[in-house]
Amino acid sequence: MPKPPAPTSPFWKLQRQLARFNTFLFRKTGGKVGGSFFGGAPVLLLNHVGRKSGQSRTSPLIYVDDSPRLVVIASKGGVDAHPAWFHNLMAMATTEVELPGGERRQVRPRVAEGAERARLWERAVAIYKPYAAYATYTEREIPVVVLESADATPAE
């Protein structure tokens, strides 16, 4: 199976530049531009803080609207490592996401498991088919992250 490029490769540097450009367009247009990914998959902006740097970061991510919750997939981190944004997010009690149209929500992350994960994974793959292909060449189970309202009582 082919392995994804190393996070320091020119490919990943280009990915980071494109993510910054997408974030700029998203914010400038209220999500009219940059609010969807290839094939029309909807995008939100996840605001988080780097665990090591302490710097604010924003990651444009494909999401599933599982109203009132939002769902994101921690895909492209590496063959055996989750992406940095996933680790940053899980280290935070709450954070903010920006949705197309300018809506901002305070959310609390948790990782879906079991039947819930399977159901949400299928919905995510239906929205963005490359998730399924990526899952075949990574050595890790790709986390499905549920973003619940920070005002709601956490699920047990």
UniProtKB/TrEMBL annotation:
Superkingdom assignment: Bacteria
Pfam families the record matches: F420H2_quin_red (PF04075)
Catalytic activity: oxidized coenzyme F420-(gamma-L-Glu)(n) + a quinol + H(+) = reduced coenzyme F420-(gamma-L-Glu)(n) + a quinone
UniProt family annotation: Belongs to the F420H(2)-dependent quinone reductase family.
Protein name: Nitroreductase family deazaflavin-dependent oxidoreductase
Organism annotation: Lentzea sokolovensis
